[in-house]
């Protein structure tokens, strides 16, 4: 009996040693949770902004169409387009037509979730984040809290599409190898309950609604937003996150961001966020840069070809971000009838074509001891900031200002392999500085068969690069030299 008792006790201690941690509802406990490795390895995701604002799909050029309702009624938002939005709305819908009236026009009749999933997977993205609810409060899934608070059907099943848009896309995405996530706004601009009593709103609307969407769809990512009007104590964010990490169906693989209350960004939560900027420059922190393909997240009919970034520019953004240890969340804005605009599909395909050749240098990598190698000249790097900081990646690479240095190559690392990704194809030879390799190291150009000749020159290696033509080059831009056997 003593032996049996000792065995049981020992077995119990072993189980406890491997038991999942229990998180408390405070930042010290919650911040100790590591961002799951799958997200750190993924590097590239697709963001989707879609809702009733997709019906007017209008913004003052340079601003966000998903803020249509706010820009329509808030006279203080002159810079963001109040006058332009009001004039457009009155001319096309009339002054008596309110924003909630767009819900019935948001019909999504051409929405094909499997086609969406196929296009997004072809981009090389490893995760998808859909706006389950933006600041207008409209839900893309059936939710009783939304209908009750608004006093009308205010979800995609009860009005407009008559479909569970979030559920359908979740099912389609999970047929692929991508992870499915959601964007969720804590606040709602004109929710009557929020306007009258924020504490009641949080208790009776937001928290049960948050638990509803997580319990129904078990997202792998939650991109929280709309947190800035109140501290996390008002939103009761630590209470929600303790439930999320301990009890929810997503608890094992869920990834969260840092938008959980006024002052939380870059301080508490999960990965740090930046938007329409350059991201951060600290590989020790999990972070993500997000942006639309043009100026707006939601589809905006005011945007023309010149407003859209090219596929090459997106690839350079991706590589630059990954070289500094970050992830890139690139947004698409579908139309109200449920289509991904063809130009956005084309951009995703261009990124996917590049990743099909060079993905080895992106997925599962980490930042090297330096993110890039500069040419001679004055170094003027991108600005760093949370929101709309200066970031002209082409100026930093292929279109420099006179007298300024450019990023000659970016670096990523995986195991003993170093990847040098060149925005301009090297002429004849390239010198990778600050690296020493084993004598039997192998050097290759991703996408081309065979090995490249190289030699050690002090603290650098010189690589002979083969001449290629447009028809023999492995890709159209951003060529990757792989060096195996790196030990410094």
UniProtKB/TrEMBL annotation:
<comment type="similarity">
    <text>Belongs to the glycosyl hydrolase 29 family.</text>
</comment>
<keyword id="KW-0378">Hydrolase</keyword>
<dbReference type="GO" id="GO:0006004">
    <property type="term" value="P:fucose metabolic process"/>
</dbReference>
<protein>
    <recommendedName>
        <fullName>alpha-L-fucosidase</fullName>
        <ecNumber>3.2.1.51</ecNumber>
    </recommendedName>
</protein>
<comment type="function">
    <text>Alpha-L-fucosidase is responsible for hydrolyzing the alpha-1,6-linked fucose joined to the reducing-end N-acetylglucosamine of the carbohydrate moieties of glycoproteins.</text>
</comment>
<dbReference type="Pfam" id="PF16757">
    <property type="entry name" value="Fucosidase_C"/>
</dbReference>
<dbReference type="InterPro" id="IPR017853">
    <property type="entry name" value="GH"/>
</dbReference>
<dbReference type="Pfam" id="PF01120">
    <property type="entry name" value="Alpha_L_fucos"/>
</dbReference>
<keyword id="KW-0732">Signal</keyword>
<feature type="domain" description="Glycoside hydrolase family 29 N-terminal">
    <location>
        <begin position="19"/>
        <end position="360"/>
    </location>
</feature>
<dbReference type="InterPro" id="IPR013780">
    <property type="entry name" value="Glyco_hydro_b"/>
</dbReference>
<keyword id="KW-0326">Glycosidase</keyword>
<dbReference type="InterPro" id="IPR000933">
    <property type="entry name" value="Glyco_hydro_29"/>
</dbReference>
<dbReference type="InterPro" id="IPR031919">
    <property type="entry name" value="Fucosidase_C"/>
</dbReference>
<dbReference type="GO" id="GO:0016139">
    <property type="term" value="P:glycoside catabolic process"/>
</dbReference>
<feature type="signal peptide">
    <location>
        <begin position="1"/>
        <end position="19"/>
    </location>
</feature>
<dbReference type="GO" id="GO:0004560">
    <property type="term" value="F:alpha-L-fucosidase activity"/>
</dbReference>
<dbReference type="InterPro" id="IPR016286">
    <property type="entry name" value="FUC_metazoa-typ"/>
</dbReference>
<feature type="domain" description="Alpha-L-fucosidase C-terminal">
    <location>
        <begin position="401"/>
        <end position="483"/>
    </location>
</feature>
<dbReference type="InterPro" id="IPR057739">
    <property type="entry name" value="Glyco_hydro_29_N"/>
</dbReference>
<dbReference type="GO" id="GO:0005764">
    <property type="term" value="C:lysosome"/>
</dbReference>
């Amino acid at each position: 009996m003593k032996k049996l008792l000792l065995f049981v006790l020992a077995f119990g201690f072993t189980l406890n040693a491997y038991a999942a941690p229990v998180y408390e509802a405070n930042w010290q406990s919650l911040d100790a949770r590591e961002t799951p490795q799958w997200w750190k390895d993924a590097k590239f995701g697709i963001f989707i902004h879609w809702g009733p604002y997709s019906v007017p799909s209008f913004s003052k050029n340079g601003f966000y169409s998903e803020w249509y309702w706010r820009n329509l009624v808030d006279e203080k938002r002159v810079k963001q387009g109040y006058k332009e939005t009001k004039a457009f709305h009155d001319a096309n819908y009339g002054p008596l037509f309110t924003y909630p009236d767009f819900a019935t026009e948001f019909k999504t009749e051409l929405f094909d979730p499997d086609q969406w999933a196929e296009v997004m997977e072809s981009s090389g993205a490893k995760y998808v984040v859909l706006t389950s609810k933006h600041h207008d409060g409209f839900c893309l899934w059936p939710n009783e809290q939304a209908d009750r608070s608004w006093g009308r059907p205010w979800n995609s099943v009860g009005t407009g599409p008559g479909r569970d848009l979030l559920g359908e896309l979740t099912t389609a995405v999970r047929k692929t190898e991508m992870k499915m996530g959601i964007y969720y706004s804590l606040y709602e601009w004109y929710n009557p309950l929020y306007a009258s009593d924020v504490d009641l709103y949080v208790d009776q609307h937001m928290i049960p609604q948050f638990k509803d969407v997580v319990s129904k769809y078990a997202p792998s990512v939650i991109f929280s937003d709309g947190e800035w009007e109140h501290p996390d104590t008002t939103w009761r964010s630590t209470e929600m996150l303790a439930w999320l990490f301990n009890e929810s169906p997503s608890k094992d693989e869920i990834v969260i961001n840092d938008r959980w209350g006024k002052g939380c960004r870059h301080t508490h939560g999960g990965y740090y966020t930046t938007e329409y900027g350059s991201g951060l420059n600290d590989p020790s922190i999990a972070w993500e840069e997000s942006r639309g393909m043009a100026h707006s997240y939601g589809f905006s009919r005011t945007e023309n070809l010149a407003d859209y970034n090219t596929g090459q520019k997106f690839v350079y953004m991706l590589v630059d971000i990954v070289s500094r240890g970050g992830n890139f969340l690139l947004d698409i804005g579908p139309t109200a009838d449920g289509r991904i605009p063809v130009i956005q599909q084309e951009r995703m395909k261009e990124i996917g074509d590049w990743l099909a050749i060079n993905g080895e240098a992106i997925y599962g990598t980490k930042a090297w001891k330096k993110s890039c190698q500069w040419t001679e000249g004055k170094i003027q790097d991108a600005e760093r900031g949370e929101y709309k900081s200066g970031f002209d990646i082409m100026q930093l690479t292929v279109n420099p200002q006179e007298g300024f240095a450019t990023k000659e190559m970016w670096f990523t690392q995986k195991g003993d392999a170093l990847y040098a990704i060149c925005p301009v194809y090297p002429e004849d030879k390239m010198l990778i500085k600050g690296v020493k390799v084993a004598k039997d190291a192998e050097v290759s150009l991703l996408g081309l068969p065979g090995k490249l000749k190289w030699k050690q020159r002090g603290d650098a290696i010189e690589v002979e690069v083969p001449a290629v033509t447009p028809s023999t080059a492995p890709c159209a831009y951003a060529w990757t030299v792989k060096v195996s056997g790196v030990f410094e």
